[in-house]
Amino acid sequence: MADDQRITPRAEDFSAWYNDVIMRAQLADYSPVRGCMVIRPRGYGIWELMQSALDRMFKDTGHENAYFPLFIPQSFLAKEAEHVEGFAPQTAVVTRGGGKELEEPLVVRPTSETIIYAMLTKWVQSYRDLPVLLNQWANIVRWEMRTRLFLRTTEFLWQEGHTAHATAEEAEQETRLILGLYRRFMEEWMAMPVITGLKTESEKFAGAVRTYACEALMQDNRALQAGTSHFLGQNFARAFGTQFQTAGGGLDYVWSSSWGVSTRLVGGLIMSHSDDIGLVCPPRLAPIQVVIVPIFRSDEERARVLAVAGGIQQALRAGGVRVTLDDRDGMKPGAKYYEWESRGVPVRLEIGPRDVEKGQAVLARRTGGKAPIPSGDGLVAAVQAVLGEIQDALLESARARRDANTVRGVSKDELVALMEGPGGFAYAGYCGDDACEKAIQERTKATTRVLPDEEFRSDPAPATCVWCGREATAEAVWARAY
């Protein structure tokens, strides 16, 4: 999209709007390799801040970072039958290297359970070696047919956690711990509210006993699976012979979990908050939180205004605020305003000659609102407070929008009408039969997002299945999804 072109309104074409926002904000671009993307510095800056926050959370809960190879022997995937069946259609396979046919083809990492368990088998001998709490930041390749920047690409970046435990209870506790950690990150950092719960058998991770997920609702009322945490039981341990000597002297297979989030979160951030002007970025994840725009007409005014603006920049930087000073010549202030707004910078400080005389700056919020603030000692605290207010308001707004587009206790006809119409989260009873789940998907294109955790369930619980009318074994949440 050229700089002089408008951003497609959300109401006109949400998909085109999404791509326009990414291009205008210079977050990513299309790669010469089909299905891959180039993450530009502004987009990677958001990912770096996500990484930093999550990495700190992982380490605070006892996890350590490691790194495992990109290439995985093809035979490894075949050791866990459900796993290979789930990933086989998406794998990229290397058959030649160094100009020769390889003795065994190598799969380009679609996920790392198999190669990690091959190593854990060497490392874990006794209960004293447990738990193993690992995480790796890596790239992943899954051969996608239909791709979209950040949301679904052939290669993407993620973190994948892998843990091994002495008991099923410890592994389940770890799985739930990480689910809660993901939710906290998504809500406190991304300002993106999520519902958590259990995936159905048809929606769980290939090779898992149970999969838990965080599900968010985007502005077009489609769901986004934002993160997953899997209780793997002993499936991979048995496939790779990962045994340990128990405290009682016997032998047992380790119990394990795996979990991950990816650069898909950047897409979720865009679709949760942005508008028809461009990107709206929560302050905690904004690479630039404040832009200072000086206003002047003469060289004399320029010198006076830039002296004050430079001092404010230094003060904000010393206060831990990520700030830039846009002192470019030959560009009108209005053009600068529009450029920084489209890039999602949360706060703009405008400083002109009159502001210098009055000892103030004009603070404009990306989310709306403009007012003068004193440019003296209290400025840093005032700006920090505004950034916090914007962060909180984005979460409140996103939560209110999600709740307004959530319908509980839907009937069969209401479920069909909702999915064929405005969309959103639909809560209803579910009998647990795969046939009903498939029938709903075929009729409405909606999938079962989660069987919600207790906090999100309806009261009273639905008594009958929304599709077949039989007794409900659980409540489920349906939505069309990315």
Write the layout of secondary structure elements.
Blueprint (H helix, E strand, L loop, with lengths): L13 H11 L3 E3 L6 E3 L1 H20 L3 E2 L5 E3 H5 L2 H7 L4 E6 L2 E9 L4 H11 L8 E10 L13 E11 L2 H21 L6 E4 L11 E8 L5 E11 L1 H6 L2 E3 L5 E3 L1 E8 L1 H10 L16 E5 L4 H20 L4 E3 L7 H10 L4 E5 L1 H6 L1 E6 L4 E5 L4 H26 L1 E2 L4 H9 L4 E6 L3 H11 L2 E6 L21 E6 L3
Parallel strand pairs: 3-7, 15-16, 15-17, 20-21
Antiparallel strand pairs: 1-2, 4-6, 5-6, 7-8, 8-14, 9-10, 9-22, 10-11, 11-14, 12-13, 17-18, 18-19, 21-23, 22-23
Q: Would you give an account of this structure?
A:
With 482 residues, the protein is α+β, with helices and mostly antiparallel strands. The protein folds into 3 domains: 14-273, BirA Bifunctional Protein, domain 2 (2-Layer Sandwich), CATH 3.30.930; 290-386, Rossmann fold (3-Layer(aba) Sandwich), CATH 3.40.50; 406-479, C-terminal domain of ProRS (Translation Initiation Factor IF3), CATH 3.30.110. The protein has 14 helices and 23 strands. The chain starts with 13 loop residues before the first helix and ends with a strand.
